[in-house]
Design a protein that fits this description.
- Helices cover 32% and strands 20% of the residues.
- The chain is of the alpha/beta class and 248 residues long.
- The chain has a single domain (3-241), classed as Rossmann fold (3-Layer(aba) Sandwich), CATH 3.40.50.
- α1 (12-34) packs across α2 (45-54) and α2 (45-54) packs parallel to α3.
Length: 248
């Protein structure tokens, strides 16, 4: 049975600090337990602020970063130097500033012409990881779209019903493009999952996911139900503004 923790920060800055502290706590626990820490990163503006804070003088000495291995929850079907690339954003704000070794960073090969090929390669990487460590990813970071998508699990797309694979190329009709994404199966196997959500524009989606009728085809983030892990929702006041606070 999974547990869910909802925490509300006063503003976006406080939210970023809350997320950084939780990231470090989970990392330390994982390193103590197994000698390593594996995390799947998210894209977006709110994670960007988190990565910059983690790479700052205040936090960079809080973890032995040489023991951290990075994956990515999803990626756009673009080359790694594209301004749209989640990898590029994380590399510029977190990985390069911390001097993370190349062998500890596993990005999607999103520059490949065939998105399915890129997904197959990531699937293989994840299978090797899970087999060699005999355990799941320690932390998956997620954002939330205004349409309640998370990673690249968009409403009414095929990846929502995928039960066998860890990684797929997901066709998103409204974007007229493939997105590369971890599947619900992969996310729900994680030891910890953090949703990091900021701003009033996300409030309706947060309300639907946390308090609405269970309709995961329409609100894909509802599919995130860790099997044996802990689920955190870290929100600022804007994102939490429509929630019934008496329920948490």
């Amino acid at each position: 049975m999974f547990s869910r923790n909802i925490k509300v920060a006063e503003n976006a800055g406080a939210l970023t600090s809350l997320a950084a502290n939780l990231f470090v706590d989970i990392g330390r626990e994982s390193i103590t337990m197994s000698g390593s820490f594996t995390v799947a990163l998210a894209g977006g503006s709110t994670p960007r602020q988190l990565y910059s804070l983690l790479a700052s003088e205040r936090y960079k000495r809080e973890l032995d970063w040489s023991l951290v291995t990075f994956f990515f929850g999803d990626e756009r079907h673009v080359p790694p130097d594209s301004e749209e690339s989640n990898y590029r954003m994380a590399n510029e704000t977190l990985l390069t500033p911390l001097g993370i070794a190349l062998e500890n960073v596993h990005r999607w090969r999103a520059e490949l012409p065939d998105g399915s090929d890129a997904a197959d390669r990531y699937q293989a990487k994840l299978e090797v990881l899970l087999a060699s460590r005999d355990r799941s990813i320690d932390l998956v970071l997620l954002g939330l779209g205004e349409d309640a998508h998370t990673a690249s699990l968009f409403p009414y797309t095929a990846a929502l019903s995928e039960t066998e694979r860890h990684a797929v190329a997901n066709w998103v009709e409204k974007l007229d493009a493939y997105r590369l994404t971890l599947t619900p199966r992969a996310i729900n196997a994680a030891r910890n999952v953090i949703f990091l959500v900021s701003g009033e524009a996300k409030a309706t989606a947060v309300k639907h996911v946390l308090e609405g009728e269970f309709r995961p085809d329409q609100f894909p983030a509802q599919l995130v139900i860790p099997q044996n892990g802990t689920l955190y929702w870290l929100l600022d006041e804007g994102a939490a503004s429509l929630l019934d606070r008496s329920k948490f």
